[in-house]
């Protein structure tokens, strides 16, 4: 599958400098730019499968073709899953029960619920139990569970992520998990590590797509350096969270 974003206009009505970008399965694409530059608007265009019918005038194609109406409007056939940093469950049911129900609704093996919980627990600090009520999960636990659910149970081949860096989960592992499952991952981020983890990044300015930058070999090297520092900070953060003395 490919996802194609065809350019529209920025806030002043000027044409996007990026006329078209095609994204393939397993690819991570970053969306970067200052606050108010139109990052979330671009995500919204993709989520809606815009066809020149949004304020930006952009169009979204699937495999080079206009999406079918059911792919745009039928929740059961939507190709897009979306994650944000503000996610909480409202259903008052147990984690295991919810996941088994979701698996059944997708025609999947209900026992995959165990795999989802196992994966989710690699992304969050406090482990999740199948017996936990959804409503008592923390924000980080909720997002970790949804990432794992999308990777294992959801059929949605496109995942849109809005600023996961403050979501309370292991962000690099989450992106690797989703892209490793063959998903197209588009992530809005201010985090240099996530931006450099992407294969390419779309630069937004004044509501428009101004350029696409492919991550260079030098940037990949810098990413590895940043990841090592982030690993040290994560360990330090966990030491403090556990009430231990930093030595």
UniProtKB/TrEMBL annotation:
Domain ABC transporter: 3-232
Pfam families reported for this sequence: ABC_tran
SMART domains, A to Z: AAA
Swiss-Prot/TrEMBL keywords: ATP-binding, Nucleotide-binding, Transport
GO MF term set: ATP binding; ATP hydrolysis activity
Entry's family note: Belongs to the ABC transporter superfamily.
Name of protein: ABC transporter, ATP-binding protein
Organism: Methanothrix soehngenii (strain ATCC 5969 / DSM 3671 / JCM 10134 / NBRC 103675 / OCM 69 / GP-6) (Methanosaeta concilii)
Phylogenetic lineage: Archaea, Methanobacteriati, Methanobacteriota, Stenosarchaea group, Methanomicrobia
């Amino acid at each position: 599958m490919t996802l194609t974003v065809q350019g529209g206009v920025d806030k002043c009505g000027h044409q996007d400098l990026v006329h078209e970008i095609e994204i393939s399965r397993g690819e991570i694409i970053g969306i970067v730019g200052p606050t108010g530059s139109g990052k979330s608007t671009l995500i919204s265009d993709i989520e809606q499968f815009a066809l020149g019918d949004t304020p930006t005038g952009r169009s979204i194609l699937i495999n080079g073709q206009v999406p079918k109406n059911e792919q745009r409007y039928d929740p059961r056939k939507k190709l897009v899953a979306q994650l944000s940093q503000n996610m909480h469950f409202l259903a008052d049911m147990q984690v295991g029960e919810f996941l088994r129900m979701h698996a059944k609704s997708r025609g999947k093996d209900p026992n995959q619920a165990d795999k989802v919980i196992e994966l989710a627990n690699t992304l969050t600090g406090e482990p999740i139990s199948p017996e936990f009520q959804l409503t008592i999960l923390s924000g980080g636990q909720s997002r970790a569970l949804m990432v794992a659910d999308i990777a294992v149970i959801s059929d949605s081949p496109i995942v849109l992520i809005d600023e996961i860096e403050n979501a309370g989960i292991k962000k690099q592992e989450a992106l690797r998990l989703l892209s490793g499952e063959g998903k197209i991952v588009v992530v809005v981020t201010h985090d240099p590590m996530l931006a450099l983890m992407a294969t390419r990044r779309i630069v937004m300015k004044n509501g428009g797509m101004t350029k696409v930058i492919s991550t260079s070999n030098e940037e990949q090297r810098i990413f590895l350096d940043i990841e090592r520092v982030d690993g040290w900070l994560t360990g330090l953060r966990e030491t403090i969270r556990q009430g231990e003395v930093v030595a």
